[in-house]
Amino acid sequence: MFKLALAFVFTASVLQRVVAHPVGEGRTDLAIRKSDGNNGLEVWEVRDEKIEADAAEFIGFHGTNSKTAKFWMDQGYISKPPGSGGGGSGADAELGPGLYVTDDPQIALAFANNNAQVNPGTTPKVCAISSRSSDNWRIAIKKVFIPEKQTGIDLIGDSANAAIKQKYENRRTKYINLVRPGVQASTTVRFSLFDRTRKTGQLVLPDLTTQFFSANCFTFDGHTLPDGTSGFPDFSYNSQTLRQRWDISAEDLAKARTATAAYP
């Protein structure tokens, strides 16, 4: 029996998957030979344009307008539409910059309604967001759950004041570096609760990662969801099921206090 080796390298521009196949097995069109490995293995490389070699995985909902929804669906992956400004389609950037996604489609619908109102000539659209590769999502892209605000901990927040805004981001970066040493905070997906009473959740996909995600956008009637998706509470970021399946680093209160104190 042979072992199948699987590893990922994530940079700002390229997500690479390196797979070791037994010699003589033969390559597929999804890989290019990189080098010979040890123990009778050959090493193959899969670059970002081939990341759909494995199945996609649904990760939540985002609310936007019909123009942006069409742009995303036409190109097959998420990026800022031409002429758009920064930000996350109306969501507060309390976890940092990027695209905000939620486990509750009703929350996404509220943001979609708001987004369409400020973009005349468009209609609200809720998008089911998926990682184009389940392997990349579960293994390569790192994730942390940001602790809630409490005594000595203040990591979740945003401000129109540039200095305060940067202070929050510095704290979150410090926290991520403490919890997951060696990873890039700028490419780490951050999770937190959205509604602290109901325990609905949110995540932010950093701008450097959005190309690895796709959107299936639809007109949401408040009830019917697309096949292959599910909403809160059955689908919950705060559940142990998703925390374990997606390898989300749990809240570390001691390190959160250290990160908060580092930027008073």
Automatic annotation (TrEMBL):
Keywords, sorted A to Z: Signal
Signal peptide residue numbers: 1-20
Keyword set includes Signal: yes
Pfam families linked to this entry: DUF5910
Top-rank taxon: Eukaryota
Protein name listed in UniProt: Uncharacterized protein
